[in-house]
Fold each of these.
Amino acid sequence: MSGPAFLAWRYLLHHRIKTAILVISIALIVFLPIGLRVLVDQSARELTARADLTPLVVGARGSALELVLASLYFEPEPPEPISQREFERVRRTGLVEAVPLHLGFETRGRPIVGTTLDYFALRGLRVATGRAMAVLGECVVGARAAREFGVAPGDTLVSSPQTVFQLAGVYPLKMKVVGVLAPNHSADDGAVFVDVKTAWVIGGLGHGHRDLAEPGADADVAAREGSRITAKASVVEYNEITPENLASFHFHGDVGDLPLSAVLAFPPDERARALLLGRYQAPDEAVQVVRSTAVMDELLETVLTVESYAVAAIGVVGAATLATAALVFLLSIRLRRREIETLHKIGASRPRVAAVLLSEVVAVAVLGVGLAGLLTLGVSRFGEAAIRRFLLS
Amino acid sequence: MRWLPVALLALAVACSPAPEPEASAPDPDDAGPLVVYVVNEPLRAMAERIGGDAVEVHFPAPADVDPSQWSPSADTVARYQNADLVLRSGAGYDAWIDRATLRERALVDTSAGYADRLIHVEDPTHRHGPRGEHSHGATAFTTWLDPTLAALQARAVAEALSTARPDASAEFELRAAGLEAELEALDRRLSAMAERIADEPILYSHPLYDYLGRRYGLDGRSLHWEPDAIPPGPQWRALEALLREHPARLILWEADPLPETTRRLTELGIESVVFAPCSNRCAADWLAAMQANAARLEAARSPGRPIR
Amino acid sequence: MAAATRLRDVVFRYPGGDFELRIPELRVDRGEQVAVIGPSGSGKTTLLHLVAGIALPEAGVVETADVDLSRSGDAARRSFRARRLGLVFQEFELLEYLSVLDNILLPYRMNPVLRLDAAARERAQVLAAGVGLRDKLARTPARLSHGERQRAALCRALVTEPELLLADEPTGNLDPANKERALDALFAYCERAGATLLTVTHDYELLPRFGRVIDFKTLGEGSA
């Protein structure tokens, strides 16, 4: 190592706290805008990827952003409901693959997502242990939720009681875990999946009880009029679906009226997408069809605007920090006047002495930028996983 | 200190997550027979007849179970989930599917083409509270006893198979046409037979013959008599009361009644004829079983044979 | 005998100050050990700076080791100092962030004319061992006693094997034993290398060891 560089390095090591502070300050000034950009890019990619995988979302009129976010990320506040009939309507077009979604219920803080088996196929979800749900009352748990709950096939989960869809109440249903999904690094990892019909049972729209027509059921019967039986309010409804009582479960009313939160539509090509969108253009249309990517792009534009403000703020702080660092450096030169004189006296040339001081600045800058580079590398490596873990699932 | 940057880099590389193995998507164009699951014997027969070698038809209900009352285990449901096609009979026949999770894309309701021709019946239904939610009336579901509806069902089966296996649609079409022709012949045969009993009051052992009765204008009333049990006294008395306003001399059974039952019915002047719906395994091919039903009816009411 | 340094009609003034130093004639021969004494502020340190070429006279001639420093540029004078002079400062002026060994070898790191090779490192080790600092080479000055710092400064002055040693109060604030030891080291080197020693000192007890004493009171007209 050259003389000036050697002296510079020794000086920095000797004053390691001051050096560390300067290095970290420079590293942060350099890293923050870059790291922010990397994180925003990764977030954008994640959000966009999920939206790309869900081309169209059909839902009630209202905020398209809330509809898309709820459907893609199972937000706790579900959108206004649409009817099962809307799902049938989308299917009947023959233009797209359609998957119903029922949201709004939770178990142990994780969303219960009512859907069909086609959701797994279209999302590329694989059952790692156990199997997919087969009958009412069964559930399949995402990888992260299963780990959090410590459940495996054979265990049970109880839905959390709450009020949705303006019903009088929601009955806790004890669900049987029959499968655990392989990790998908998405919001699906944190969800508990049931058949849509099971979600309706949780919502009190379907239930099971003893057969009121059988002779021993008189205690539960309020009145009989010919073949019409009126049950008492006190009739006991099952809160767990077992092989023994499964056949008793039924839905009252027209199944087409039962609620869904959204319908995910997967068109095979642009033409099908355009045709489907075209069918929902009437001004009196009760539902909307939104393009997930368009909604996400709007959201990301806002994020980018916020990011630019943040970068500007960081820039101002960075300039102030650099000015402070320059001041520290100039003050330290003043404090080292005697040392500099000594070097002159023993014969060191002015450029050589200047090289010592400059080497210190360069070393700090290089270390700072190097640290910023490492931090950026870390964010590039682990940012996506962190985003999926803490932000999206 | 010189080692620090290198160590940090090495740490970063070492901590990088291992790449996830890609999930392999199922190949939709698997060259092999189409795996078809059905919910009763008539659909099984139709799918096999129309599909030929291109299909592998499964009907896993036990032979001694009424498929309309069948509630398969979760493991059996899982087998249905893996099918390429699941053919529903519809009209409320296969209620267990409404409590199961199957792939919507694979489900085909073969009664969709005649949904407007389904017969709604008064059945014990219940509601919760005076103005509470209530069940709609049930639907008669033995639609295949009307050969014209069976032909529409066969057409639906052919279309479902063709959608799933377009390259074989010509063969499916050909075989479906053959089946439809046979069903038309059966219809003509039953129509001719029905002319002989058009004004005759008849009885049905169970409310299974709505579609048969509607198609051929039969004047039938349903009992709830099991072939493998002797009806208890009150049911005989109810029958006698019924006979006063509906003097039937013929009863259609879904299976052979007990000899004692037959004897007592004969004493009342009622002849027992088996007209098996064949919803589960039959002794013979389903269509042959229908032809046998027609033959037995013809035999009971052949011209010149006195009505006992 | 050749002169190690010679000043003639030298006039020096500090910029902006009232101090003026006049030296009509001063000569130190090679191999001499000369002490310079005088009242504070009389210009003794300035004399050393002039001899070393650190300061330039307004008038007159300063020749050191046959080089007219009063006519030389800054770079030439620095190079000259690095190659041929050894300086011991009043406050030792060790760099706090360097070890004893690195302080001793500082001239080599700061002057490209000098080569930091194995021989130089060897000389540094030997010098340090000679003044009892062999086991303290890795320490920084903060962890040395006053006497040890002074000895380290001596080693730094001697490591380049200068032909002229300029020492400004080399024994200041040292106890008697260390004073003797410091002078012993300086004199031993001068005798061994045939080098010249020009020392500014306030310590009259040391004067008998020098071959000649220059009294600024009689020599100089250094006046504030």
Amino acid sequence: MIDHDRLFKELLSNFFLEFLELFFSEVTSYLDPNCITFLNLEVFTDVTSGERYETDILAQVKFRGQDSYFLIHVEHQSSSESNFNRRMFRYFARLHEKYVLPIYPVVIFSYDRPKKAAVSSYQIKFPDFQVLDFNYRTIQLNRLNWRDFINQSNPVASALMARMKIDSKDRPKVKAECLRLLVTLKLNPAKTQLISGFIDSYLKLTAVEIQAFETELGIFGQPQQEEVMKIVTSWTINGQVSLILRILKRKFGQLSPEIETQIQNLSSPQLEDLGEALLDFQQIDDLTSWLSNLEQ
Amino acid sequence: MKIVTSWMIDGQVSTILRQLKRKFGQLSPEIEAQIQNLSSPQLEDLGEALLDFQQIDDLTSWLSNLEE
């Protein structure tokens, strides 16, 4: 099970400016990029349904060149919900009451269906006049074409392309293109891991698709192909290390930090060898001498 | 946050399959397929459990216990 909300929150909070640049570049022209503060999540109770809701992302931002602030509220919705527009208005009203600041409301819809455009306003009107016309920005991923983002030099594009409108035959190609875009950005390892993890979570390929994916990588040319494979291999190693450490701890109890580090630095084939060798280990010395034999 | 990717699972599956083949020789395609469908926490549990497996039946009964 994927925790969609946490993945999106992690993505948007780590790449907040990039997110704004990608979808609302005008906003980035009037905010001060050095004055963005994430505020604590606000918890709301819906008294009619009894459900508790919390805001996903709430940032206080300074207007560029001015001494005044506004809020950017980003909500992520992984399923289509009736009356969601009313909930957005409630968030807006509560936040406005508490902070007395202008609020820029945004919703990112990540569900697969329905394809029809989501509601982006909440109105209250009488036959003779309209009291309220509340609007919010929407990004509905299933209505965006991944091909339009392929040349955006932006990590959020690289991640979200994986969740856009994709023909099923294009899934391997899109995964490859997301990763190609990612390697061109040359992010640090932690950020690369977050984005590639996001991509993989939404584009898990079947065995047949994996072959097509590898063919796509082959078209990129060697340097980019190698960079993508480096990301894939680092995840493979990650899985192997966590497995091997668990088995070794079961066998020998806690391991010293030095031994753990040595194991974390092994290659993928070495980890497979170790997996086999450890079946015969009787004591911890067998492990240390196996490791020291490698270094020679 | 901890993200589990399909690439992590690939690495765990191939390590476990090698361990099991070393212990029991070739595995049936059915057993291989069952192992390929495990989640990452299940694979780690299996990694621990296989230390105590004496015979291939221990593996098949471990797998069938999962399904219940």
Amino acid sequence: MREKKRRFRYFSLYSSVTVITVLILFPAIFTILTSFKPIREIFMYPPSILPHTWTIKPYISIFSREKYLHYFLNGYFISICSTFLCVVLGGLAGYGFSRFKLPAKRVLLLGILAAQMFPGAVLMIPYFNLSRQLGLYNTYLALIMIDTTFALPLVIWLLKSYFDSIPVTIEEAALIDGCSRTKVLFLIVAPIARAGVIGTGMLAFIRAWNEFLFALILTKGPEKAPITVGLAELFGQYSINWNGVMAITTLAVLPLLVAFIFVQRYVISGITSGAVD
Amino acid sequence: MIFKKRFFGRRFLGVLLSVSLVLAISATFALAQDKVKLTWSEWWDQEWGEETIDWIISSFEKEHPNVEVETIFAPHGQYMDKLLTLCQAGEAPDVMSMEVTWAANFDKLGVFEDLDPLISKACPEFTLGHNPGWDSWWKGRLIMTYLYTMSYGIYYNVRMFEEKGIEPPTNWNELKKALRKFHSPEEHQWGIALPVAMKSSAHFTLYNFWTRLIQAGGRMTDEEGLAVFNSAAGVKALEYWGSLLAEGLVYPGTVPGALAIGEKEMIELLGAEQVPMQLTGPFVKGQVVERNPKMKGNIALTPPFKDVTSGYLITGSGVSLSSQSEHPELAWEFLKHLLSDEVAFKMVKEKSLFWANTKALESPSIKKDPVLQYLPEMIADPASQPWSVLPQLGDLCNSLMKNAQEYFLGKKDAQTALDDAVEYWNKIIQEAR
Amino acid sequence: MSLLTKYKDRFELRGFFFIAPAIIFLLFVVIYPLFKVFEYSFQEYSTKHSFIFVGLKQYQTLFSDELFWISMKNTFIFTIGTIILDLALSWGIALLLNVKWPNLKVRNFFRGALLLPFLFSAPASALLWGILYQPLGFLNYINEQIFGITINFLGDPKLALFSVLWVNVWKNFPLIMILILGGLQSIPKSIYEAARIDGASRVQSFWHITLPQMRSLMMTIIVIDFATTFIHFDLVWTMTKGGPLRSTYLISFFLYQRGMQAFRFGYASAVGVITMLIVSICVATYIFIYSKRVEARA
């Protein structure tokens, strides 16, 4: 009897999650399929899911152009650097905000959100001029710094929240034993907070990966620009290269998905105290 | 002993390599220093293809071997943002591609060189091929000149017309009749799609409203530059499109449905042969044939329409020269190169673009091209009007579109809609003075 | 006792060393642009690089512009709607993924697969859903076959805001789901077991154990979601540019179209400042209420 009940529970669990996943993922799969359709088929009626005519023309035009390789590599480089910077600065700051009684803590926490509260367009000119004055126009560093600027406040808030949820007792025990604060952070707290760190790392990475306006403004071309700029080139004045956009998106998204799935499995397996089942 | 020798050998090799590398780099750097750099900002990579852009540049560099032309590309949607940041920082490109929509704005930054002295003193070879109607004036200065012009007309799918045994329309009434003949909702077939989504507010303003307004005998702005399109002619123009929508003749048959269709979707529907007609410009041929090779030779332009007038709207995209350029003579040379016979003939032939060169426009290929053949007539018609430089034109079009949408949805009548739009237009126009 | 007070004093100083790098970085990169925006908001840009001081004129103008208020209304609806749907969807899926799964590999597969929408860029999502939302597109094809109706997702002024809202949620929620899942998994299982021994039902343990533990994380998520969504631009702009009938016109559009695209930089800066103030006030109020509730509970 209990066996039957358990099996029914598992069945309803699997089916509900499958249904949700299919509904959520359908547009993504649609994207991939559309990248193989000729454009005239996208606007046909009745609409098709699977391509009637498979075409790899968009992919050929991507692979045959060197600049897309540059766009992708630039994107990876900038995003990884920005993520690293965010996690390091944000991890330290999040820990600091969480564990220490600091004066004006609330004001500081709100204040760091400041740049995050302006629509990007109004910051366009100031940041362009700033990058020029620092001699950073058309450099990786400019983009890394911009991406970090926009992601860091969020990372700090999230990591502070994660650290808040980890009981202080373990650290206090280690401190009383004579361990230094930084050692506590790196050796004891970090492993426990790994889930949070990876989650916020993903946020920082995607924030940098999908940055468009400033990437366009602060770069001159495929030399330093990430893939978002490469994608925008397909939006013409009179028409859009629809299947090209889908193809680039597919090529952009799939490697990231694989990477994130891999990273996630690594994270969860590291948690010892917690609801690991 | 032997070990030492090998180690010495590797180090020596390493030093030699690095020295030669440094020399090579500085050599290329030195060579690069000799060349003069000219910057040209544009958005046409997607439309013309990179090979065409590269050809334009390399054909110029062949004539001027000490010059290197660097393009600054931004997609059309973000071109203004990119150019704005460059201009206000004092780094305006030497040659700037420009739209009439943005010209008044950029003039505010003081980046435009007055082209009048250059054009009026140019050699006959240039002036013979140049039509003053292609120049855009603002506040007494010639701030841009067209690279290509066009008018908007009804393009149709020849095969679909022949199948139904219908003659292509030659005036607005026949257009309506043809739309009725193509109208069959059960088969999900409509005769035309209109760009009435908010994202296509500029297209609706130009392709549909302004064109129909001129044909109805009206004007968009008067001699003082104030908006006057809420005239009887304007109401007639707006009500024409409203009647098409109300009768369900427009893809996809309902007004709310049509409000989701923009220019980018419109062109695909024509290319996918879902819709047999389109009110658009000659660039449609290149775009559509690329998507559907079967459409080659299958698109044609209807003969010029006539209502109260036979005039059309003359628009185009062009270039301006920077007033901050370090090489103004070279920039002017490049502009002349863009309008040269060589470039003009190629663009007319390959891209079906109506290049701003009178000699190219007389080429027989235009008369033979069913997509271009009537355009010279339409543009040269005495009643045809060029679109004017206006401030904040994107926002103005947006305001007109919003009012038109309210009319289409039955929330306002046509006269009120146009009155409200004119009120906003004139407020902005007067503020800009 | 004295040991602890000594620690407390030392905490203060050492804390600054931890937050200093981030604060210095942000100060360095943010202070100049912020200052410029504030400065410009009291000025007007006239010809040739010159700004004239006009006091509060820009603010007066924007408050008297009807479109400003329409944008604000739309933005609030958009933001709060996004937060609600984000949380609903993320909690639902996180809870499903957090129960005991017979096969961990399957669970991990789902958890990874559901990340996918988050990886899409804004223009790509806009284009993709634009195609799906077409009047004769795939979704309406299904609608027609099954229900016999057509829904004008992007053409009906009454529906458009919700249509784009849904796309924003679709793209946003995986991150929130992961954060919630991480939070759920960091609650020690021992607490649940103790409650079960005491006879608590599943609902009771959710209400009295899960929710309180997640409170701090939820506050952070809501604050972040609010701030990032309020200034939203790319996705909705590509889909509708504010139409139809300005029903999807957000405050960032107002800033961009009436400010930046019109080269009225002072005006745009004023709108930016107002936006920032509104977001700050909302966030500060929310945090204030939240901490009052926490204190009341303690």
Amino acid sequence: MHPLLTNEPGKKMFLMGNEAIARGALEAGVSFATCYPGTPSSEIPEQFFNISREISDFYFEYSTNEKVALEVAAGAAQCGIRCMVTMKHVGLNVAADPLMTLAYTGVVGGMVIVNADDPFMFSSQNEQDNRYYARLSSLPMLEPSTVAEAKEVTKAAYDLSEELKLPVILRTTTRLNHTRAAVELGTLPQRKTLGSFQKNPFNLVTVPAVSRKLHKDLLEKYQRAQEKAEQWPFNECAGNGKIGLISFGVCATYVKDAIKDLGIADQVKLLKLGFTWPLPKNLITNFLKSVEKVLVVEELEPVLETDIKAIAQDAGLTITIKGKGVGGFSRLYEYDPGLVRKAIAEFVGVPNKAPAPLDLSDVPPLPGRPPNLCAGCPHRATYYEVKEVFGSDSVFPTDIGCYTLGLLPPISMADFLICMGSSVSSGAGFSRCQPKKVVSFIGDSTFYHAGITGLIDAVHNNHNFTLVILDNGTTAMTGHQPHPGVNPEALQINRTRVVLEDVVRGCGVKDIHIIDPYKVKKSIETLKKAYEYAGISVVIAQQLCPLFARATKQLKRSRPFMINHEKCKNHRLCLNKLACPAMYLEGERVQIDKNLCIGCAVCAQICPENAIVPLKE
Amino acid sequence: MQDKRVVMVAVGGQGNVLSARLLGEACMLMGIPAIVSEVHGMAQRGGIVETSINIGDINSPIVSNNEADVLVAFEPLEGLRALNKCNKDTIAVVNTRPLPPFTVAVGQGVYPPVEKSLELMKAKLKRVVAFDGMELAEKANNPLALNMVMLGAFIGLNEIPISLEVMKKVVSERTKKQFLDSNLLALELGYQAIKG
């Protein structure tokens, strides 16, 4: 049985923030969940995926993208089913279109949209602050501060959603998603999987006349949300000091530690907000009236600081309210306990208690350890083959996935990346406005997510570039989730395969090639045809991700390779052109680590001396 | 007990996320508050994996620079790199078996000699215990059990009130049965490496 289905109220489990959120949803009776995976949110749907394979009264899908995920769930919610939609922060950009108007129609069954922000961009292309989305959409936003709270807040969010008849955004940051702590289990209720839909077009079909009324309704709901915010049990106020500290989310834990470490409990008063939009205006006003100055502790944008200043203005208060600029508080990156303690010490006017840094001036420069494409990764072979045909001077728009690591030398074949699917559409722009060849790279999952519309555009508008779809049969980057093109049999899932080649053909592409990147010579010959073609050419590079293949028992066992040093003349093409992590230098000679080599044989095919041979067992 | 801020550093694939989690589970079993934080992301692809375990009356899930009480380094270069997490009172446990990053193979850096790294660490920290953890994992018949060796070593430091028996109980309940014997042996060998 899946651990999150443990029905022992009171039992403690050591859960990751994402697991706690999934458990909270289960304790709220959620029976329907959708997502597109994205770090740091991916472990939430991973739980649902595994649970849905075990029990029949829970529907879960990996949707094609976040917009689809939200719309599928919107249908479920209209039928009165409790549902959850999860995504990373930039995923909400993709889902922003349905979000903004779903706020107008509202929901019947409770809906929680988990939005995982990523300050410091541990695994993201930007660190946008999605608290703005709550403000933009007028939807309620809740922000848990600890793992245990994450479960409780998720559960409470469903009652709130159904009471307000609005989707609720649960915002996390990476630090909460990927932290583990003890969580006490509650009860698991019966799940309702079948609801009913009451037709109500004059409240649900958002033509202008309807929407004019719905926007007014939304503002009334927003008013009620504000009243809810005032009474929200996860807002906390502690202390009686005259210096106010306001925070929320993970930062509130840093503030609590700073108060303890600096020994200033009698000088400060802390307001920790759990309901962060709409803000509990009265609660905040009363807090402001009870202190002499206030420091707002928030990562990323000064959103709360600005709002609190506005609340103070409304109340005619002139106390000092500070945030960004105090200590090292900036709009950049993730905060940490030391940074927050320093700023609070400065604001309160007490000495900071921090251990002195070590003198590291005698530590030599250390070699970096950047992430790398795995040993035997088929993307490495594809990159090599494309470079052999198109040279390194062509323009290479790239996309989001493991293959973005093609940025690093010696591959160095990534020139432009902004978001999911951008390789295809930006390739069109590049091909129109400069003379060099353009080769765009996109992964299979990313292609289904956001590449198809760009490809249709490229065909229709007669653009001229080559699109290489790196088809490794899975969503590798985020942990091998299925996508519409996966082989359902290998995963033992009852889903229909949407064949990649059929989609490409259906988009109107005439010049389509399929290569197996492990076959170097043949792939290069095929790529030459794409090179010569005037117009849109698509090359599908098909080879399973070795990690995925191993996990799903599809990896054909191949013998690892070794270097025959009698033949090797130390050209080092293998090392310098492929840079597979299974290779290393021993003195001046290249060696292959037999424990890392998966036997893909790509290096053996490019060695001019045929010196790379299967290891004799 | 005194609050303890523990940082574990390793290379992707060395299993430090599991060690940190098991340590957290052991604390929970003993009623000691613990928060474990992991840096994931692209780590699976050979990058650095850092976990922090905050034990005691601590709310924050992470450890700031200079604030680790204990550093557990699964790899000597990563131990050296993590000195920015340490201060003069930090205790470190270091596996001495190097795992050179790929950048060294392609000539983008020089791997610092292990002896030199240990010397630097010893000069700066309160106590450094260094041993070949991989040798012990191999002795336990499972090169993947380095994480158990390092976990055992950490328990052997006696920095937190978790006994080897409690740790063994958690490992028995939470790790795959097929590796149980080698995991328990690796845990024991790591513990003995500290206790002597």
